[in-house]
Design goal:
Layout (H helix, E strand, L loop, with lengths): L1 E14 L10 E11 L2 H6 L8 H13 L2 E2 L2 H16 L3 E8 L9 E8 L3
Helix pairs in contact: 2-3
Amino acid sequence: MDILFIKELLVFTNIGVFNWEKTIKQKLLIDIQILFDNQLSSSNDDLNDCLNYCTISELVIKYLDNNHFSLIEKVAEEIANLLMTNFNIPGIYVKIIKPDAIAQAKQVGVKIKRGIFI
């Protein structure tokens, strides 16, 4: 199996538990690794046979733009479920970084793996 990855996808979404957080959009950085079989698309060089990272990125951005979340853990789960369902993905790794959450830390975040993953 092969891995398609998207690193540090910049997304702004409504996230947080405090009242002030519910009124603004905050920055998240998202890493996604998707387990898939690359043999067909690599052998025929056809966009229709690949897992399109542009389509995946656009779907994630649109989904997060249209929803509110309290926790980054929920964001990670939602992304994993969204992509596994829409693209019949056997395994996925999602990392969510909330860079401005703690003044004394460069980043905080969560990592999850769902499905089959090597």
